[in-house]
Design a protein that fits this description.
Layout: H1 4-13, E1 24-26, E2 34-39, H2 49-58, H3 62-66, E3 69-72, H4 76-87, E4 92-97, H5 102-110, E5 114-118, H6 122-136, E6 139-140, H7 147-163, E7 169-173, H8 178-190, E8 195-201, H9 206-213, H10 236-245, E9 248-252, H11 254-268, H12 274-284, E10 294-299, H13 306-319, E11 323-331, H14 336-346, E12 350-357, E13 366-374, H15 378-390, E14 394-395
Parallel strand pairs: 2-10, 3-4, 3-6, 4-5, 7-8, 7-10, 8-9
Antiparallel strand pairs: 1-2, 11-13, 11-14, 12-13
Helix pairs in contact: 1-7, 2-4, 2-7, 4-5, 7-8, 8-10, 11-12, 11-13
Length: about 400
């Protein structure tokens, strides 16, 4: 059974395997509260998952170790299992969904594991891992629904509580629930007054729905940029622990996650993957009662593919009014672009792209001009559009 002694034992066992990630005071991200970040994206594998995986493997019997280990993962657990197994001289096979970022697949191989790509999402990889376990006799290392794994993740709470006094709340992303189960259980045993909040994305609300409806539910599909928490069904152990120890679970959208990733880059010079930024997104957007409180948000991982990061940044810029485009219908004659550019420049905007388009306009000589701009915020966009309309330009 999960116990506080087991969490403290995990802390001792993991001493030489993990990095104690110091809290970082975050400025300019959520000004209405005193926000601290727990940067698990700075772990050796770029994610908190090394904690649970390494402790689970350390607790295996000699026979289980000799059989080799198998695991399934969206990418981060894979790297934790691979590194921990390699350090212990154990062979490892990881089943990954074929949608996993290339960076996570290559990193898993780099830590010494064999990789089996499975068509679909995490849950499809899970089923394949169970098949191979039964067929080959491997020892299965579950990514979240295992008491030793949960105890390993609980060491994060021990570090938070020992470093910072008078905490009001800890905010944690949820996929299958292993991370928040370990943190919530440990926090409530040591300092029960501290609130523990969970965060899922609207495209994968498995734990949210299960808690809301009072029983474990399985989603038919998941779709989100936060691939690390794209889990169709929570575990039995984690569902029970979340029900008992977590104060509230809320949802954030992909757009809100993208904005949080951008804010972490700009304000903290910190790279987070979608799952890693989910907790920050919930605090930023006021989904939780954190006003005037001292809050710790767990940045669970930073293993985001570079090409994905570029797309997420673009999305975050659009969502915050930092990047915008205008479609202007006008008469195709000399001087139009010059006048439009002048107005935008006078308003402090920066033109980054101009696209000339023929289309169905009221005039035979009409055309469309699409202008891409860098702007400060949505109020700045309104100023520019108002100024263009004042100059008699027709905006679509």
């Amino acid at each position: 059974m999960l116990s506080l002694d087991k969490v403290f034992n995990a802390q001792t066992v993991l001493k030489d395997m993990i990095r104690e990630t110091n809290l970082v005071r975050a400025h300019g991200i959520a000004p209405e509260c005193e926000l601290y970040l727990k940067p698990e994206n700075l772990q050796f594998t770029g994610s908190f998952k090394i904690r649970g995986a390494a402790y689970k493997i350390a607790m295996l019997s000699d026979e289980e170790k000799q059989n080799g280990v198998i695991a399934c993962s969206a990418g981060n657990h894979a790297q934790g299992v691979a590194l921990a197994a390699t350090k212990n001289g154990i062979s490892s096979l990881i089943c990954l969904p074929d949608t996993a970022p290339i960076s996570k697949i290559e990193a898993t191989k780099g830590f010494g594991a064999d990789v089996c790509l499975v068509e679909g999402c995490y849950d499809d990889a899970y089923q394949k891992a169970l098949e191979l376990r039964d067929e080959k006799g491997y020892t299965f290392v579950h990514p979240f629904d295992d008491e030793n794994v949960i105890a390993g993740q609980g060491t994060i709470a021990l570090e938070i509580l020992s470093e910072l006094d008078s905490i009001d709340a800890v905010v944690v992303p949820i996929g299958g629930g292993g991370l928040i189960s370990g943190i919530a259980y440990t926090v409530k045993q040591i300092r029960p007054s501290v609130k523990v909040y969970g965060v899922q994305v609207t495209g994968a609300p498995s734990m949210f729905n299960s808690v809301k409806n009072g029983g474990i539910e399985c989603l038919s599909s998941v779709s989100t940029i936060a691939d690390g928490i794209a889990v169709k069904q929570p575990g039995e152990n984690t569902f029970a622990l979340v029900n008992e120890y977590v104060d509230e679970v809320v949802l954030v959208s992909d757009d809100e996650v993208a904005s949080a990733i951008l804010a972490l880059i700009e304000k903290q010079k910190m790279i987070a993957e979608g799952a890693g930024a989910a907790a920050v997104a919930a605090v930023m957007t006021g989904k939780l009662d954190t006003k005037g409180k001292r809050v710790v948000a767990v940045v669970s991982g930073g293993n985001i593919d570079v090409t994905s990061l570029s797309r997420v940044i673009d999305r975050g810029l659009r969502n915050s009014g930092r990047s915008s485009s205008l479609l202007i219908e006008l008469i195709d004659k000399p001087g139009q672009l010059k006048e439009i550019s002048r107005i935008i420049a006078d308003c402090g905007g920066n033109v980054t792209g101009v696209h000339y388009e023929k289309g169905d306009t009221e005039s035979v000589n009409g055309c469309f001009l699409r202008i891409d701009m860098e702007t400060r915020d949505f109020d700045h966009v309104k100023l520019i559009t108002h100024s263009l309309r004042e100059a008699k330009f027709k905006l679509r």
